[in-house]
Amino acid sequence: WSYGGLEIQFKMLQSRPPFDTESKRQEILNRLNQIPGFNIPADAIIRFPKVELSVLKNEESLMQFLEVLDWVVQEIKKS
Predict the structure, then answer these.
(1) With the C-alpha atoms ordered 50, 2, 12, 21, is the resulting torsion angle positive or negative?
(2) Could you read off the pLDDT of 31-66 as tens digits, one per residue?
(3) Distance between CA 54 and CA 67 in Å, rounded?
(4) What's the pLDDT score for residue 1?
(5) Cβ–Cβ under 8 Å, residues 53 and 5
């Protein structure tokens, strides 16, 4: 978003396999929260939590985030 934030659209994933199950959305949450600067609460898997883009200025954090996105794409392809 133009305000410098990143919105994780868990709510939209609720109706899209394979992330229509709570456990799969929880897995995304767990993977994201391993990235320094991410601190998304457990109940956010039914909302649109936001994270400041500045947490991704560290190259290692950015790479971890991209790995999570790659995992999400692979899970979608398998479903």
Answers:
(1) negative
(2) 999 999 999 999 999 999 999 999 999 999 999 999
(3) 18
(4) 63
(5) yes
